[in-house]
Amino acid sequence: MKLIIAIIQPDRLESVKQELYKEDVNLITVSEVLGHGRQMGVTEVYRGVKEMGNLLRKIRVEIAVNEDFAERTVKAIVKGAQTGETGDGKIFVLDLVECIRIRTEERGGEAIG
Q: pTM for the whole thing?
């Protein structure tokens, strides 16, 4: 089992979801988060004064999948999120030790669905 965490641009969420649905990945958790990467936020000029916003709005997508869905999930996220510009985001793939469905107490791959 794997836990896939993606940090993407907010305007790419619908595209990422559509690509995931094409790959039959339907169980996702989405959160609004703040952060920055190498671009260190954005610089804007407001009334002649340079202002730098340190944290940018991002979307965090979390998906727990069985091993056979991991690579296709990553590819779907890349396809939906990629613009070729700085700030497209990152994907983290972690080993998932355990998953338990609360309602039925199923464990492991069965609990993921």
A: 0.86
Q: Give one DSSP letter per residue of 61-84, joined into a string.
A: EEEEE-HHHHHHHHHHHHHHH--S
User: What are 101-108's contacts with CB under 8 Å, separation 24+?
Assistant: 108/1
Per-residue pLDDT of the chain in tens (113 residues, 90 and over written 9): 999 999 999 999 999 999 999 999 999 999 999 887 776 656 555 556 555 567 788 999 999 999 999 999 999 999 999 999 888 999 999 999 999 999 999 999 999 97
Coil, helix or strand at residue 14: helix
The class level of CATH for 2-112 reads alpha beta
